[in-house]
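Archive entry: two folds, one per protein. Generate the first.
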Amino acid sequence: MVEKYTDTALHFEVEKLPHLLERNLPRGPLTFADFGCGDGPLFRILAAGGHIGPGRAVYALDLEPARLARVSARFPWIETVIASVDHAPAIGDESLQFVCSTMVMEHVPDERAFLNEIHRVLRPGGRVYLTTVFKKSWAWYFRRRDGETVLDPSHLREYTDIGAFRALLVEEGRFRILALERSQLWFPLLDPVLFRVGGRVSGLARRAALLRGLRAAKVPVPGYYALEVVLERAPREVLDEGLADISLFGR
């Protein structure tokens, strides 16, 4: 399944940071990781904005070596890590200021283990930007899994209850929610063709302006939305010396 997904699901480079992410990114360069980065669509724009750079530790984490090779070819200073998003021992405890994970949470077998691992690698006061799929009960899409409409057959879940999703994020006080937004999902009409040809479109993918134009025609996916959330790791309550721990974001 992973190999087939890698061959057919292209990750086009982001041209503009999502507003919620941009509003919650501190000045860089940051110690940073993208959990389930795929081809690394965020790295170019984050580097251009000075949020990440060669001077600080940056990790690209994914299960698929072919995708990480694409990251290394463009950004040799980023450390690639072949690992699951719920177990990444190569990244030290409390070593990162920021984590991104876009459209990954719906793929992981254990969503709590995924959140726990992000909590482990974040410094107190560190932040994470997550996105995932939300659907209404009447949602419709042409893909099916076990007779049910799904946006992607590789999804293990698609969230349907905002309240339950919020409760999951703040379980045991690990995180607090700084922002949560829901937005309509739009589907570029050309993407089924591009996904079908897979790696054979690599030459076209390098012609970014042409590709943007070809993918401009989009339609809304009925009943399907993207959930975007920014979480902050709860700070330590009190150090042994009696001083409150200060997040790097406050320095």
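Generate the second and append.
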Amino acid sequence: MAAVEYVKEGKIANIIINRPEAMNALSSDVMRGLRDAMIDFRDNNDLWVAIVTGAGDRAFCAGADIKEFKPLTDEELKAQKNEKTVRADTIWKPFIAAVHGYCLGGGCELAMSCDIRIAADNAQFGQPEVNIGFMPGLGATVRMPRFIPRAVAAEILLTGNRINAQDALRWGLVSRVVPRDKLMDTAKEIANTIISRGPLGVRATKESMLRSYEMSLEEGLILEKELANRVRTTEDFMEGARAFAEKRPPQYKAK
């Protein structure tokens, strides 16, 4: 059984962590599976939106597999340093995290790397690394203080305590909370809405959002203009403009 199921459903790529017996912990097999799935999604022009979730009912992902924890050798450290990063926020196609149950440690960091986070009403979020004398290492100390108020992020990161779905919604860590049995339907509804939009415009919008985050306002506006001018030369833009004028649904091709 694959540690990560990768299921293509029309233009949607479903990336499912498949270790429910271990609360979908991030083993080395899971990490390889996520990387392979993301690379295929990135490079496949027929796939426009990805949904990331976890199998079973207990967890989206409960974090790193502690059983695999060990000090890294010099060779492993060097290999990690030289490995090209593949994350949801290094790919301009949209990612939706459909979170249920435990979303802890590396699982919470995986969700935060996605563009849209939908939570089931049973979701719990947290970064418990400090509870075992460790620290977050997949982006939580960088992303969380940028996504939610710094004092709230500090309490979550420094205490190792969890927050529930409603608190995550209140602080803006997720955009919606839905009943558990409506989670995937909601994620697919959002994905299909995005799919109905111009895919190149969507990707340029994501690129502008992420790349401009650390820029000055003026630099960000220059980047946005460059990307908008690029999209304006595409077949999809012309199709969208024609469809609007002709009052018909556009037929986008990601070209």
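Annotation attached to the second fold: The first strand starts at residue 4 and ends at 9. The CA atoms of residues 223 and 229 lie 10 Å apart.
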